[in-house]
Amino acid sequence: MKFLLGLCLLTVSVYASEYYAKLEPYDTFIVKSAVSGKIDYINTSALGKVVKNETIIKMDIKLDETELKHTIAKLNSVKDMLSIEQKNYDSIKNLTSKSIFEKDAQKTKVLNYETQVADLEIKIATLKDKIENKILKENNTYVHEINVKVGEYVNTGTLLYTAMDFSKGKLEFFIPINDAEILKNKKIFLDGEATDLKINKMYQVADSTHISSYKCEIVIKNPKEFSKLYKIEFK
Predict the structure, then answer these.
(1) What is the enclosing helix (H) or strand (E) of 66?
(2) Is 89's pLDDT higher than 50?
């Protein structure tokens, strides 16, 4: 289970069109356990790195895999029995020599097996989902923190790890409401250098803390480093 955490940054306005903000990852993912179980494996080498399609945490799935295997086998057997009973019903449903009671009894057998098939298919889907939720992978994300240890038993909702999207960063700062429309059309400079960047978001509701300001967001793709303080100017 994956949740997005917005990072609000404290910025200081120096004068009307000059601001400061730290570059932070655009998204932070707080990964919590969707199921209960024992931690079987942790990819400690992934910590502090951008990983590509790697397993980060794996929980014990031996019992789930065994149950899944036997449930699939049971489903196949029930399907075979359903096929037999369906053929039996088809062979008598139009016979006048068979009573309504006999036909209904055979039809009931068919319906019972159909119900069993449906129940087993739901159980198999549930087990597959449970196994999938016990193997947590990340792709093109930075693994910031791992919060559990091998051998630890976790419950549903336990914090497992934190990951970040390093493919883009964001600068968040606050601009005076009266300047909002003017700054939208100005060129953005970072640390004195002209850029082609645009304002990605401008929240058109006054901030609850900065009551006379709008929160503003600029997105930078593939940044070289994070947590760097930038001077933002509009000219």
Answers:
(1) helix 62-92
(2) yes
